[in-house]
Amino acid sequence: MAKEKFDIIQSTCIPIEIDNNNTDNIIPARYLAFTTRDPKFYGDAFMHDLRYDANNEPIADFVMNKPEYSAAPSKGIHEIIVGGQNWGSGSSREHAAWAIAGYGVRVVISNSFADIHRNNLLNCFVLPVIVSREFQLELFQSIAKDSKTEVKVDLPNQTVTNMATGHSEKFEINGYKKYCLMNALDDIDFLLENKGKIEAWEKKQANA
Amino acid sequence: MANTLFDKIWDAHVVSQVEDGPTQLYIDRLYCHEVTTPQAFDTLRDKGIKPFRPDHIVAMPDHNTPSDQQEVINDPVGRKQVETLKANCEQFGIKHFGMGSKDNGIIHVVGPEKALSLPGMTIVCGDSHTSTHGAVGAIAMGIGTSEVAQVMASQCILQSKPKTMRINIEGTLKPGVTAKDVALYIMAQMTTSGATGYAVEYAGSTIRNMSMEGRLTLSNLSIEMGSRAGLIAPDEITFAYLKGREYAPKGAEWDKAVEKWKQLKSDDNAKFDKEVTYKAEDIAPRITYGTNPGAGIAIDECIPTLDGMSDTEKEQFLGMLDYMQFKPGQKLEGTPVDYCFLGACTNGRIEDFRAFASVVKGKKKAANVVAWLVPGSWLVRQQIIEEGIDKVLEEAGFELRLPSCSSCLAMNPDKVPAGKLSISTSNRNFVGRQGPGARTILASPLVVAASAITGVITDPRKI
């Protein structure tokens, strides 16, 4: 996945107000049989079976196909998804995070994320932002009123702001992961630098 | 200080604590299947590195394997993925149980039954149902493909420690009620996100009296409550199950291991972040009616009505029922079914086949039903045949198929056609899970067996 240093993102949003939007919805299983890493391949499959019917025609009343939300994400446009409760439940498939990242989304906002999917998003440099239920509902309302509503996600200060109302909340992220996102660093590189510690730990176990 | 079982295993695997960050946790066992590993192996190649501890890794294909024959995978995409796993394992010196070999099966069935998963271990796999292995008294978690690559590269993973929850089930299960019903009951009580952020320990008299197969079913479904890891303290039932199995310690090593494993339990005064207790007697055979596993009822109950729901809740609830072609307040018992599926990492073990056979023995499969009976592994299949269960099934008009994930997730030929109603022992009733447009009802092997005989959703206590 493309690694881009994370800082402040201010963008319009795609509101996907579906609770328990599981990873089977985010990307159906048939896209999991491929061995590619092509972001576009997974991005095109994002929410596929809700976006397209059996004949691959766009389903008009699905939010991502509505004219005001159908533009592909670009700087300041649709870089943020506001999702329903329990976003990303079910299967551990990282393909779901690849689909979100591949589509061009950089932030997902919800009041709750499934644990495995949340880690997968972070490993794909997509920031999961946990907000209160009230803040989430207000965002949906603001966007429903004006689809051009912008949200500002400030990672350095760990704040998320609904620009339509000016309401702002702090969000949690541990210092390590924040540093990784702001500097585009992988966990794997961190672990590889720690080989000495791992070998020492193994030796200690063998002698226990 | 009093510790929980989870704390004890976790603490014993901490390599380091990252400042203001996650724990670097040592992993004893990485399982790999064909779907979530090709890109992880690519990462190793990109970085020019090899697996750090290849002897800690065990791989096998299961998602794409067909259940009717295993000579060839006709779908070129699935075939390539299975071949890629084999090639990657050969390149990096990883133990690989190939399709059709007697060692093969669904990872979450094979791991415990070969004693590759043992008490006290940390176990991960790029598959959310890895929680299954926690039933032997281990920390077992599903992870993503980036994390698979991390474990391959370093035998470690970076994770924040979850909170702990204990779910106690007390009393004796009523006839016709299985571990599957217990899990479906818990999900309906606490919703599919009720245990998000927690590692769950199952305890109480019902669990202590539950077979290993039942415990594996229960732990398997932890993820459907939102919990990455469900675990059960190992006891004599665990030891009896593991003893003598292929990779279990042998002789004096076994005795030494058991002594150590006996320490693996939550201390009497251990504090859990959350604790709930349910009564076994409150649990009936269950079915789901919606498109998440928490949307379930006792088999003789009606689908909830819209009473007390907000407008948003109503909209989502009706959308779910619209997909399922059901109505609020509808009674589902007696509804015709098209497909019956026994199998998956949830219910593909010998006890599940014994249960199914106990219902269908001396009866005949309903003509309107397509039934897929798919053992979770070649070992399970062999035991089915040794016990003569295959004959019972055959006489009742059923065919025993070959080990595979089969109809659990529509990545192989066993797909339920659009609009058809399936009653299934698998773990997810999501939209399109068993095939685009397929409608899934989750249930126990007993309920599926009874329904396969009558052709309609049937309470196994009434047949």
Labels describing this entry:
heterodimer, A: alpha/beta, Aconitase, domain 4, 7-stranded mixed sheet, B: 463 residues, alpha/beta, Aconitase, Domain 2, Aconitase, domain 3, 3 domains, 16 helices
Question: In CATH, what is the class of chain A?
Answer: Alpha Beta
Main sheet strand line-up of chain A: 4-3-2-1-5-6-7
Largest interface: A-B, 52 and 71 residues
Rg of chain B (C-alpha, Å): 21 Å
Number of helices of chain B: 16
CATH homologous superfamily of the largest domain in chain B? Answer: Aconitase, domain 3
Helix amount of chain A:
25-40%
By CATH, the architecture of the largest domain in chain B is named 2-Layer Sandwich
Helix/sheet category of chain A: alpha/beta
CA-to-CA gap between the ends of chain A?
Answer: 41 Å
Global mean pLDDT of chain B: 98
What is the strand content of chain B?
15-25%
Number of separate helices of chain A:
9
What can you see in these coordinates?
The complex is a heterodimer of chains A (208) and B (463). Chain A has 208 residues and is an alpha/beta fold. Chain A has helices spanning 23-26, 39-45, 48-51, 95-103, 115-123, 133-145, 175-183, 187-192, 195-207; strands spanning 8-16, 80-83, 107-110, 127-130, 150-154, 159-162, 168-170. Chain A has a single domain, classed as Aconitase, domain 4. Chain A is built from 9 helices and 7 strands. In chain A, helix 2 crosses helix 4 (95-103). Chain A starts with 7 loop residues before the first strand and ends with a helix. The model of chain A has no long low-confidence stretch (mean pLDDT 96). Chain B has helices at residues 5-11, 38-47, 76-92, 107-113, 145-154, 179-190, 205-208, 212-220, 236-242, 252-261, 311-324, 344-347, 350-360, 378-386, 389-395, 445-454; strands at residues 14-17, 23-26, 29-32, 57-59, 95-96, 122-125, 139-142, 156-159, 163-170, 198-203, 229-231, 274-279, 286-288, 296-298, 339-342, 370-373, 421-424, 439-442. Chain B is an alpha/beta fold. Chain B is globular. The mean pLDDT of chain B is 98. Chain B has 16 helices and 18 strands. The longest helix of chain B is centred in the N-terminal third of the chain and has 17 residues, at 76-92. Chain B has 3 domains: 5-161 and 236-258, Aconitase, domain 3 (2-Layer Sandwich), CATH 3.30.499.10; 163-234 and 266-282, Aconitase, Domain 2 (3-Layer(aba) Sandwich), CATH 3.40.1060; 286-462, Aconitase, domain 3, CATH 3.30.499.10. The chains are: A alpha/beta (208), B alpha/beta (463).
